[in-house]
Amino acid sequence: MSKVVTISEAASIGLHGIILIAKSKKEMVNVVKIAELTGSSKHHVAKVFQRLVKLGFLNSFRGPSGGFTLRKAPDKITLLEIYEGIEGEIQDTKCPMEHQVCPFEKCIFNEVTRKMTAQFKEYLQSKTLNDYLS
Q: Taking the complete model, does pTM exceed 0.85, yes or no?
């Protein structure tokens, strides 16, 4: 089955996991808990979350009672920041094939991919972690 839009496993782990941490308030959430709740490998979770620590979104504490806490207030972190922190900056491109010159006079996709990208980016920018805490 073909999908037009896909989100990488790393981005999904990062977005869902950081919301779990935000929901826990001041309590720490560890890699094992995030892996269980997201259905992901704890090694993949650890890799994604170390990146989020390095980017300044999270505090990390080692040890048996360790885990992660937010470094910033949930209303100060957008989903776009998390997504781009994991995947890199979302690029607005006119051509899904990244051709500089189109062999057709009119794009056969009618710029739908550019519009979808812009809409996705706007959506992520408009949502903070705080929007998922109720």
A: yes
